[in-house]
Design a protein that fits this description.
Elements: H1 12-17, E1 27-30, E2 46-50, E3 59-64, H2 73-79, E4 119-123, E5 135-141, E6 145-149, H3 151-164, E7 172-178, H4 180-193, E8 201-207, H5 224-233, H6 242-248, H7 260-263, E9 272-276, H8 280-287, H9 304-320, H10 322-326, E10 332-336, E11 353-354, E12 357-358, H11 359-368, E13 375-377
Parallel strand pairs: 3-4, 3-7, 7-8, 9-10, 10-13
Antiparallel strand pairs: 1-2, 2-4, 5-6, 11-12
Length: about 400
Amino acid sequence: AMACSTHACAGGMRECAAHVDNGDGFMLHLFDAGTSAVCLDGSPAGLYFRPGRGADANKFIVENEGGGWCVSPEDCWSRAQTDIGSSKAWPPEGCPGMDGGSNGMLSNDCSVNPFCNYSMAHLNYCDGASFSGSVSAPVVVPGKGTIYYRGRAILDESLALLKELGMANATHVIWKGCSAGGLSVFLHADYVAAQMPTRTRFVAMPDGGFFMDSPAWNGAASYTPSYQWVAAAQNVTDNVNDACVKYYTPLNETWKCFMAQYTLPFITSPLFMTQDLDDIWQMQNIARVSSDCTHWPFGPGCTPDMVAFIHRFRYQMLAALEPLFAEAPHNGGFLTTCLNHCHQNTPRNWAQTIDGQTMIQSFASWFTAGPPQPIVIDGQLGENPTCAYGY
């Protein structure tokens, strides 16, 4: 189907999209022209929305889409030519597939998803900085063209539209996201929660977003300088957790508030975190171990030093998660050791169990009742026979 554009539809994207349905019920809502909420290429940002059904219509699940970050002006320019930097080719209907599409917690199949009748939104990610950037002037990339760093404006416009679409009357809101979208959940949980009606049960549910400040397996500097660049270039400091920024400002380390492990101690909203303790993306891009270390069993190229680093990485992440555990049962979690990256919308990961519970069973019981064991933690790598290793 041809992408529906505001040029082709006098009523704008909202009216135009409402006439298209491909079965999963998600319709594109592009933001009105003239707002500052634009993608890297300057095209209007937007979201996909499916209204809920029956008694659950006033309950919302909101997905923050993932897709990494752009880590230099040239990288951001290149990204602006793709669907995670431009809305020009977004289809008018159908949930995007980056985080699993309309599967898992975004499924409307009630035999699969206990939250199937909730109103659901998918916040499309096209700013390159986890919905956090705020640079008012266009950014000129020499020899390329102009790009825009407007993630916070996109977040704010998304919240305004969601309120129009019923979230102003929400009784329950599950604010979630995968990967870079999971990081967005950590960064903005308290900001979003503060905009909810006082009666709303709001929970933040980051998925695969706890990226560690860690060197590579051999001690070399790894991905942290990239986070530092994003934080500075996209001016994220005013747009992430206020308490974190206040703490790190005297130390001249406000870039840390663009990382989940430093933000976590300051979050006051209820959190249910899904995360793999040996996250495969982090093994590849932060630990930078051999590809023989990114499947199970390990291959011959996974050296003893690499294996030792992977085991240490798990314990270091558990140590960094102490603030999550300290606030249980206010917080909950489902922490696997399966070389995964994101669980919530990925059917292949839904069969994984810890202590006999799947992720969705663990979350549903915590969300509705608060079980005596709100955080379930997997054993060592290779111990869980239900693991579906890899992406």
